[in-house]
Amino acid sequence: MRLFGFYYTSVGSVVLFFIIATIISYPLNLLASALPKALLALEKINKQSAVIMYLLLDTVATFIGLNIVDYFMQSISATTISIIIVSFVLALFGMSEVNNFNDKWKSR
C-alpha cells in the first residue's frame, strides 16, 4: 500500500482504520446498493447502467468513510489516490450483488 501513498504505524491501526471506515460508510453503502437495484426493478435503467451507477455510488460512499477516518486517525496517512483506489476495489467486490439482482427479479 505504500506504493499508493498509504502509510501506517502498525498493522493494528490498519485493521482499526478499515473497521471504523466500514461502520461510518455503511449507511451510504446501503443507499449505493439500493438505488440502482430499485431503478433496475422499476425498469428505469438497464443492467449495465445499474452496474455503473452502483460502482460510482459505492466508490464515493466508501471514499467518504475512508477519508473521514483518515482525517481523524493520526497513525494512518493516506493520499487521495490511494483512498480512491481502495474504494473502487472494494466496490468491485460487491458488484456481483447488482449483477445478479436482475436475474432474481425476472424469475419471480
Describe what you observe in this structure.
The protein has one domain. 24% of the residues are buried. The chain starts with 5 loop residues before the first strand and ends with a helix. α1 packs parallel to α4. The protein has 4 helices and 2 strands; from the N terminus they run βααβαα. It has a two-stranded antiparallel sheet. 77% of the residues lie in helices and 6% in strands. The protein is mainly alpha-helical and 108 residues long.
Looking at this protein, list some descriptive labels.
single chain, 108 residues, mainly alpha, 4 helices, 77% helix
CA gyration radius, whole angstroms:
16 Å
Category by helix and strand content: mainly alpha
Order of helices and strands: EHHEHH
* Broad shape: elongated
**Helix segment count?**
4
Largest sheet: 2 strands, antiparallel
Whole-number count of domains: 1
How far apart the termini lie comes to 44 Å
Low-confidence stretches: none
Mean pLDDT: 85
Quaternary class: single chain
Adjacency order of strands in the biggest sheet: 1-2
In helices, the fraction of residues equals over 70%
Give the strand content: 5-15%
**Annotation, overall tally of beta strands:** 2
Helix and strand arrangement:
Blueprint: E1 6-8, H1 11-41, H2 47-72, E2 76-78, H3 80-93, H4 95-106
Antiparallel strand pairs: 1-2
Helix pairs in contact: 1-2, 1-4, 2-3, 2-4
